[in-house]
Amino acid sequence: MKHLVFILLFTAAAAHAAAPATDKERDSYSIGQDLASSVKQLEVDVDVNALVQGLRDSLEGKAPLMSAADLTRSRDRVQNSMLQNRKKKRDADAAKFGKSGQDFLAKNKAEKGVVTTASGLQYQVLTPATGAKPGPTSRVVFDYKATVAGGAEFDSSASRGKPATLGVSDGIKGWAEAFQLMSVGSTYRFAVPPQLAYGDQGLPGKVPPNATVIYEITLREIAK
Hints:
Layout (H helix, E strand, L loop, with lengths): L3 H4 L1 H6 L8 H19 L6 H12 L8 H42 L4 E3 L5 E6 L11 E10 L4 E4 H4 L3 E4 L5 H9 L5 E6 L20 E11 L1
Antiparallel strand pairs: 1-2, 2-6, 3-4, 3-5, 3-7, 6-7
Family: Belongs to the FKBP-type PPIase family.
InterPro entries: PPIase_dom_sf, PPIase_FKBP_dom, PPIase_FKBP_N, PPIase_FKBP_N_sf
EC number: 5.2.1.8
């Protein structure tokens, strides 16, 4: 909540009905636009009029209309509400993506050429090869594309502009198993269940909790 006063700046810009005319007004308005998204991320119902009043009083150096104790209680209440709302959303996402991931894995398991290992990892050989295979302590150079099952791509070596280099056992659990199945030069598609990927925490901003992740990997070389 230390950032609350700054987050409230967007309401001050909103008080100007006309388009900003001076550099100061434009700068203030742009700050307000940027900070509006931060207010929304609080996921708390606010009274705009009271919010504006609190902002003005603070910026103008006026005494607060609430006691220090009341301000502390309000900040704690907002913080608790925000945490509860986020937990509800995370729990809902975990249930949603856990179910959709299970459905995907069940359907994918029946696809031609798909193999399911004892751990639950699923793979399909897209391009076979007869090169060397990495071990658990190897470092590998590879191209990859990552998507959430039933969703959008969230990462790729192409988007980073170069192949990735990683220790076989340094990534998610599913990768440690996946790389050791591959030969240099091969391309595999892996369906990685959540317990072998990012679990019930997910990867904030990219992978929802309990999501199954699809990786298409081309193993380029075993690094020296």
